[in-house]
Amino acid sequence: MEQRRTRLIAALDTRDPGQAETWAAAVSPHADAIKLGLEFAYAAGFDAVERVAAGRDLFLDLKLHDIPNTVGAAIGSLGRIRPAMLTIHAGGGSAMVAAARKACDESFPEDRKPILLAVTVLTSLDEHGLAEMGIKDGVKAQVLRLAELALRNGADGLVCSAHELAALRAEFGDKPVLVTPGIRPRGAAVGDQKRIMTPTEARTAGSDWIVVGRPITGASDPAAAAAAIAAELSA
Ligand SMILES: O=c1ccn([C@@H]2O[C@H](COP(=O)(O)O)[C@@H](O)[C@H]2O)c(=O)[nH]1
């Protein structure tokens, strides 16, 4: 069987448009896409998102989670940004995911429709964190439950940790796009992430895209850090 190609998204988490542009230029020869998310969009605004993303594939990680009408309308406002990938929270429920699907279909030209990704369980959560919210049957069960809900209502793929990849592939096959943050090259600081894997482990487990932020942006040479991860993915 042919080995799946695992691609790299560099998460550029900053408030500063100049810093984001510098990082984007540095990592772009090595990363397949850049991520801009809540921190950047709230601080710098969507004009800056559009500028930094120009000519690049953008993973727009807004993790939308609201009533269906609001999420649909928010996605309808993103037409000018044209992200390659867009995130919502699966926990918003069936109607919210369906509204997001409809808005993607109606707001973007056929050839520029973003891949709609539903976040299952944040990689910063573990069994204890879920139990605090009343979810007592563990991370894997919750990821599978939310994955089924999201895919049934039109999501193209899922955001999960690399630990759930095998179970998701077994249940839903090859088609869903599986994106895994919580990636740490060997020896990198873990920070607030709880469910982590190395780039090599995530690739072996079947990730389509890994998302890596601080191990790149916190490195003394972000370009070299991104290049090393890309090399690990293609080894
Ligand atoms: O479950 C999730 C969903 C999204 N993220 C985002 O990925 C990056 C990871 O950054 P690191 O610095 O490599 O930890 C970050 O932008 C998150 O918002 C996630 O970590 N987990």
TrEMBL record:
User: What class does this enzyme belong to in the EC scheme?
Assistant: lyase
Q: Write down the InterPro entries for this protein, in alphabetical order.
A: Aldolase_TIM (IPR013785), OMPdecase (IPR014732), OMPdecase_AS (IPR018089), OMPdecase_bac (IPR047596), OMPdeCOase_dom (IPR001754), RibuloseP-bd_barrel (IPR011060)
Q: Which keywords are on file for this protein? A: Decarboxylase, Lyase, Pyrimidine biosynthesis
Q: Which reaction does it catalyse?
A: orotidine 5'-phosphate + H(+) = UMP + CO2
Organism domain of life:
Bacteria
Annotated pathway, please? Pyrimidine metabolism; UMP biosynthesis via de novo pathway; UMP from orotate: step 2/2
Q: PROSITE patterns, alphabetically?
A: OMPDECASE
Is the Lyase keyword given for this protein? yes
Q: Which PANTHER family match?
A: OROTIDINE 5'-PHOSPHATE DECARBOXYLASE (PTHR32119:SF2)
Q: Describe, as the record does, how this protein assembles with itself and its partners.
A: Homodimer.
Q: Which family does it belong to?
A: Belongs to the OMP decarboxylase family. Type 1 subfamily.
Q: What does this protein do?
A: Catalyzes the decarboxylation of orotidine 5'-monophosphate (OMP) to uridine 5'-monophosphate (UMP).
Q: What is this protein called?
A: Orotidine 5'-phosphate decarboxylase
According to its UniProt entry, this protein's organism is Acetobacter aceti
